[in-house]
């Protein structure tokens, strides 16, 4: 009798073990199904990014200085008069004391490419680095410094590629006098509410000759000079200003992609 009972119990336990194994397998399959998501469920198909070609410049960019015709088409002096700077050999050179120039078009968020060259110091203009002093004032306010500081000792928040008097470049990537430099700038304009109160400060990233030198820096206001800062005042999209600071800087290949 005892033997028969034991055999029955053993058979029952064997069946239960098999059922447990089946149940475990089913649970494993269910868990795997729940956690191994079909890749198609995470595929995004729209909107399709617009195709942009990149040579000679991005096809969605605004060419501000590629040829002599661009000078009168896209630029003017602050007083509204035609540009007096000198265009030759594919570049536009500051005519000292003629005045700064501004783009005829206004910009907000943008990607900007600009190339500039400082002349070599000459016997006539030995006052380096001021023989090659200029600047890019985005929205006529926020200045990326242009200055021939190659081999020159100067306050670091005023050297080439600084956000003037606000942020020193992370590294010095300046080319020697007489050679071309490139700035690639990503600028996010400040935002203001309906009452003119700043809600989001401007931010800027700068690559100098392909090297990151300003990394998403939060601009503190307009150019700081002699310790005084003019802080944000409400404004809309505004032109780009290229500065005449009595330096014979040359410019070429300027283009902007509004973002």
TrEMBL record:
Residues 70-257 form the 3-keto-alpha-glucoside-1,2-lyase/3-keto-2-hydroxy-glucal hydratase domain. InterPro entries: AL/BT2_dom. Residues 1-34 form the signal peptide. This is DUF1080 domain-containing protein. The keyword Signal applies. It comes from the Bacteria. Keywords: Plasmid, Signal.
């Amino acid at each position: 009798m005892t033997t028969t009972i034991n055999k029955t119990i053993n058979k029952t336990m064997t069946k239960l073990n098999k059922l447990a194994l089946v149940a475990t397998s089913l649970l494993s399959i269910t868990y795997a199904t729940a956690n191994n998501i079909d890749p198609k469920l995470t595929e995004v198909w729209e909107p399709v990014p617009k195709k942009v070609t990149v040579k000679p410049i991005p096809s969605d960019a605004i060419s501000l200085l590629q040829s002599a015709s661009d000078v009168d088409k896209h630029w003017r002096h602050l007083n509204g008069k035609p540009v007096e700077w000198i265009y030759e050999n594919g570049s536009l050179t500051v005519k000292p004391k003629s005045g700064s120039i501004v783009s005829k078009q206004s910009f907000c968020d943008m990607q900007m490419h600009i190339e500039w060259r400082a002349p070599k110091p000459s016997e006539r203009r030995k006052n380096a680095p001021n023989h090659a002093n200029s600047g890019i004032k985005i929205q006529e306010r926020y200045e990326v410094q242009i200055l021939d500081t190659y081999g020159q000792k100067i306050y670091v928040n005023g050297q080439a590629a600084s956000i003037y008097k606000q942020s020193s470049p992370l590294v010095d990537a300046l080319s020697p006098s007489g050679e071309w430099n490139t700035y690639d700038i990503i600028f996010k304009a400040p935002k203001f509410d309906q009452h003119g109160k700043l809600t989001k400060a401007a931010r800027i990233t700068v690559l100098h000759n392909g090297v990151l030198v300003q990394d998403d820096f939060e601009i503190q206001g307009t150019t700081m000079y002699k310790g005084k800062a003019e802080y944000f005042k409400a404004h809309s999209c505004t032109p780009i200003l290229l500065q005449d600071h009595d330096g014979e800087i040359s410019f070429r290949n300027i283009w902007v992609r509004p973002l």
